[in-house]
Design brief:
The chain is an alpha/beta fold. It is about 45% helix and about 15% strand. A hairpin with a 2-residue loop joins strand 14 and strand 15. The longest helix is centred in the middle third of the chain and has 22 residues.
């Protein structure tokens, strides 16, 4: 396979490890844990893996001889930069424990485990994928592991291959699956450990122990480069308003991080809009007022960052979406038999009057997407809703009747962008390359320690990699009960943008200046070679979150 000059050079990069993991380790247990909410319900659902202690590793001056380990690995959910380095770290970690250890990759996500599709990952295969983006080493998928039949079918191939530990690399849903699988195998004395790794570019899988999910750093740097390029063009042509939607299914971490890196004129934060109980009309007026203010200064141009999941946080539409999800989830067999016309009639005939009114305020195309386009779990597919075009259209309508905009001789020419897939498979930044390799190597240490139902955790991430602190936290510690598809389900609680947190407060302190002036920053492309202050910096979100620690 032909490679670019950068690919060849990048393959030689040796990721940095926490110094603790460079020698044999021993487990140090902390306090017993409990779930973030709904403790009684979660305890009943996970009686064998609830209440486990947090653990961290220290150097072991007198380690026992290592034994060969057979380990399976699954990439689950959407891609995120650095997944290949997690697998490389697992491989190197179990080989360091014993040279006869073996690693098996299940193909195309959790379905590979159930359908017994796998390959053995050997050194030549691993070496082809070190420090590369994507999940193409074994592929990924979104099959949910929820049923006993799936667990038992997977156990058949694990026993056939002699696999005694399974690492699931994924986001909140995937690691919820890992917790459920760990509980089932523990309850049935199956002899299989399950370890999770925190993956999602959305940045919403974190807490005090999981400081960030891998891929967030790289993806936001990729998006910020392109936003910076657009802002340079914007400031050159001085005639367009760029509405830029950014990936992030629920939380606004990506939009906030990119705003901190690029200083756009406007960045909407979904969590703030919900807290302030802002209507769609108020959001439109907020944008239009800034457009008018800039027009009065002769600046008929600007940039607006919009989180992908915005519409679910606007209170009037959150209420609508919640009722839609309940209505369709409770009648899934019935609605499955309906064509689009019948389904529309059914929905409009059963919704609360206020929700019908909210629906009718939307353009017909967006209203249809809310009603008709659902994901496999019955939820609205927000990524398909072109929120950037919805907002620009409503702003244009508002400005057409705004006397202040006319008096300013304003011109409004919107352009639209959606940045999502461009960042999911980029070659990982040095931070993500190091972090992911450490997560994988740490997962091997957790396996060797004999624990199950834990997530690989590496902390102290604003320090140099050698000072990072490896360990593990029980996955049940991150869980609560949520309503999914008209049913109560145990899930890992999403970490939303904290409005009292340092990253948001820093943004809020500067946004008025950015709105009315042109303060753009142009970050440029990710740098892999050069001084640490250029190449090895973590996200601004991480820096602000830890600036006083």
């Amino acid at each position: 396979m032909k490679k670019s000059a950068l690919q060849k050079a990048r393959a030689t990069y040796q990721p940095k490890l926490p110094i603790v993991l460079t020698a044999p380790v021993k487990v140090v247990e902390g306090h017993a844990t409990e779930s973030v909410a709904d403790q009684d319900a979660i305890r009943q659902l996970f009686p064998n893996t609830y209440g486990l202690p947090e653990i961290h590793f220290e150097k072991n001056p007198s380690p026992a001889p290592g034994k060969p380990l057979n380990v399976g690995v699954i990439l689950s959910g959407g891609q995120a930069p650095g997944g290949h380095n997690v697998i490389s770290g697992i491989f190197d970690g179990i080989k360091k424990i014993h040279r006869d250890s073996r690693l098996f990759g299940f193909l195309m996500g959790p379905s590979g485990l159930v359908e017994h599709k796998y390959i053995e990952l050997t050194a030549p295969i691993i070496d082809e994928y070190r420090n590369t983006g994507g999940f193409d080493i074994i592929g990924s998928g979104r099959t949910k592991l929820e049923k006993k039949e799936q667990f038992d079918k997977g156990l058949e191939i694990l026993r056939e291959l002699g696999i005694t530990a399974l690492v699931i690399i994924g986001g909140d849903d995937s690691n919820t699956n890992a917790a459920i699988l760990a509980e089932y195998y523990k309850a049935n004395n199956a002899g299989v450990q399950v370890i999770g790794c925190p993956k999602t570019i959305d940045g919403d899988l974190k807490n005090a122990q999981i400081e960030t999910s891998f891929g967030f750093d790289t993806a936001t740097k990729v998006y910020s480069e392109v936003i910076g390029n657009i802002q340079r063009d914007c400031n050159s042509a001085k005639k367009y308003w760029h509405f830029i939607k950014l990936m992030g299914r629920s939380a606004s971490h990506i939009a906030l991080e990119c705003a901190l890196q690029t200083q756009p004129n406007i960045c909407l934060i979904s969590e703030e809009i919900e807290q302030k109980n802002m209507s769609l009309d108020q959001i439109v007026k907020y944008i239009a007022d800034i457009v008018t203010s800039r027009a009065a200064d002769g600046n008929n141009f600007g940039t607006i960052l919009i989180p992908e999941g915005l519409i679910e946080f606007i209170p009037e539409y959150k209420k609508l979406i919640r009722e839609l999800n309940e209505l369709l989830g409770a009648n899934k067999d019935k609605v499955a038999q309906m064509n689009n016309e019948q389904l529309t009639e059914f929905i409009l005939g059963n919704l609360d009057a206020s929700n019908v009114a909210a629906l009718k305020k939307l353009p017909e195309s967006v209203a249809k997407q809310l009603m008709l386009d659902r994901d496999p779990h019955g939820n609205v597919q927000v990524s398909l809703i072109e929120t950037e075009k919805l907002l620009s259209g409503l702003v244009a309508d508002y400005l057409a009747n705004d006397e202040a905009f006319a008096a300013a001789h304003g011109k409004f020419s919107p352009l639209h962008h959606f940045f999502g897939y461009e960042g999911r498979c980029a070659d990982p930044s040095n931070f993500d390359a190091d972090y992911c390799y450490s997560l994988g190597f740490n997962a091997a240490a957790l396996i060797n320690a004999g624990v199950t139902g834990y997530m690989s955790a590496v902390r102290n991430l604003v320090k140099p990699a050698v000072q990072w602190i490896p360990g593990g936290i029980p996955i049940t510690m991150m869980m609560n009960i949520e309503r999914r598809n008209a049913e109560d389900k145990p899930v890992i609680q999403k970490a939303l943008v904290r409005l009292d947190g340092a990253p948001f407060r820093n943004f809020a302190n500067h946004r008025d200046t950015w709105a009315h002036n042109t303060c753009y920053i142009y970050p440029g492309p990710i740098q892999y070679f050069g001084p640490a202050e250029v190449c090895d910096q973590p996200s601004m979100t991480l820096k602000y979150e830890h600036q006083h620690k």
